[in-house]
Specification:
It contains eight helices and eight strands; from the N terminus they run αβαβαβαβαβαβαβαβ. 35% of the residues lie in helices and 21% in strands. The protein has an eight-stranded mixed beta sheet with strand order 1-4-3-2-5-6-8-7, sandwiched between helices. The chain has one domain: Rossmann fold.
């Protein structure tokens, strides 16, 4: 209940809760590395997130929303040591796998958050991010579920606000109908400019491979904040 005695509206979830069972490798990595590299996202928490404390003063930060098993995140972070990578996910085996990769590859520039990505975004200061990656989010294909899609005008406005001027919002999907809806939403934001050159350095993800096997085309959409 809120101060007026009425129930507060619950936020619309853009993801399926996916707890899953960790392997022994994932569980061991979680136990050993979560205290140093992990961050729990709690609903309603608006405590400002200090990115400089997480990665060091002046380090550009990439936010990756929904990193799956984390293989692509680890590959990008390993190839790009000058930037910090903050990944957020709800799939516990994926969190365990990314932490295992962090340990195995010695990735000091990765932090792993568990919880609702948009709750986390609210805690990040405007203009604080160098890039935001949204790779293969849940397409919510049924029309009645479209309201749960991550790429909606209000979410895009919030993500764009967290980017520095010149920062890049990079989305990818293997669902053609969602690609069209994404492009329409992103094109409509007056402070985003579409980048037409092909993206560089994005590793193939597990979901991307699944889409390719199923014959679905891959669409990358990259926008720069003005």
């Amino acid at each position: 209940m809120n101060e007026t005695g009425t129930s507060a509206a619950r936020p619309i979830r853009t993801f399926h809760p996916r707890r899953g069972r960790m392997s022994s490798r994932h569980a061991d990595a979680h136990a050993a590395l979560w205290p140093r590299f992990g961050l729990m996202v709690t609903d309603g928490d608006r405590t400002p997130l200090d990115l400089a404390e997480l990665f060091g003063a002046g380090v550009p930060v990439v936010l990756e929303i929904g990193f799956g098993m984390g293989d692509a995140t680890a590959a990008m972070a390993a190839a790009d040591p000058g930037r910090g990578y903050l990944g957020v996910e709800v799939h516990t085996p994926g969190i365990g796998n990314l932490l295992a990769l962090v340990g195995e590859l010695g990735l000091g520039n990765v932090r792993v958050a568990c919880g609702d990505a948009m709750q986390l975004v609210h805690r990040i200061a405007p203009g604080a991010l160098d890039a935001v990656h949204v790779f293969f989010p849940d397409p919510w294909p049924k029309a009645r579920h479209h309201k749960r899609r991550l790429i909606q005008p209000a979410n895009v406005a919030l993500l764009r606000d967290r980017l520095r001027p010149g920062g890049v919002l990079h989305c990818a999907t293997d669902w053609p109908e969602y690609a069209v809806a994404m492009a329409e939403t992103l094109d409509a934001d007056p402070h985003l400019r579409r980048l037409l050159e092909k993206p560089h350095g994005r590793p193939e993800t597990k979901f991307e491979r699944r889409g390719a096997v199923a014959g679905r085309p891959i669409t990358d959409l990259r926008y720069e904040r003005s």
